[in-house]
Amino acid sequence: MKRKKNRLYMILGGILLLVVTAFASMSSDNEPISTEIKIETYEVLDSVRNRLIPYALYSPEVEMKRGDSIRLVIFSHGYGSNYSRNYLNYSYLTKRLAKTGFWTLSIQHELLGDPLIPKEGNLQVVRMPFWIRGEENILFVLHDFKQKHPELKISSIDLIGHSNGGDMSILTAKEHPELIRKVITLDHLRMPIPHLNKPAFASLRSTDKTADSLVIPSQDLCLKNGIKIIQLKKITHNEMNDEGSRKQKKQINSYVQKILEDRL
User: Fold this and answer.
1) What is the domain-level CATH number for residue 102?
2) What residues contact residue 136 under an 8 Å CB cut-off, 6+ apart?
3) Straight-line distance from the first to the last Cα atom of the chain, in angstroms, rounded to the nearest whole number
4) Phi and psi dihedrals of 38, rounded to 5?
């Protein structure tokens, strides 16, 4: 009887160990390394364009010393018909990035009174001015961040953008490849991914939208240039912001984290 009890305890102990190991594995992919973050919002005037640019900084709540290096992510929201708080509508992602050590800038690209984005014609042509404006916003906010934090050394800059924000992120990386390490788009549809291996490009694709012709390179070109195209499960184009379900957000966060940390 005693032997049977000991054997039972050993079996139960083994099961418990497997459960703990499984949870630890899940935690490494889905739980933040740091639990405290700081969120600051700014409205900065670009005097050259006479344009006010709101943006938010999500950063780990850690003590930084002069010369410390950081990893920086610049996030660009999807088109929102000039909704003025769209840059705050992806907090599931921007907060997660900060909690795992990435300083994250989220930029408001549309202002009240801006012309609405064209929906007819050759969209790769008629929307280019909006993407160029986004590129200028990205470069200006990066410059402003550097001025506010001259003590920090930026070891890498990654761009992430949803839809129209993904289009402008690709344009920025294409025009300034020396600045950018990685670009991750959340279902961008118009701007072709360059056939380059530097910066590194990746795109998470929705279940309900198809990109324009030649936007997504062929499988051979992706393989040749290290471009990662990831088909998401049960996530539509409009479910990639804070309106998505907890399960959907978890899926996106997991892929983004793995891409940024070279684990995919």
Assistant:
1) 3.40.50.1820
2) 46, 49
3) 50
4) -120, 135
Above 90 in pLDDT, residue 4? no
Name which of 55, 79, 75, 53 is nearest 190 in CA terms: 79
Q: Is residue 2 part of a domain?
A: no
Residue 186 predicted with pLDDT over 80: yes
User: Domain tally for the chain?
Assistant: 1
| Sign of CA pseudo-dihedral 140, 63, 58, 244 | positive
Give residue-wise pLDDT tens across range 187-229.
999 999 999 989 999 999 999 999 999 999 999 999 999 999 9
- What whole-number distance in Å separates Cα of residue 155 and Cα of residue 70? 6
pLDDT of the residue at 95: 98
149 phi and psi angles, rounded to 5 deg: -130, 65
Average pLDDT over residues 71-79: 98
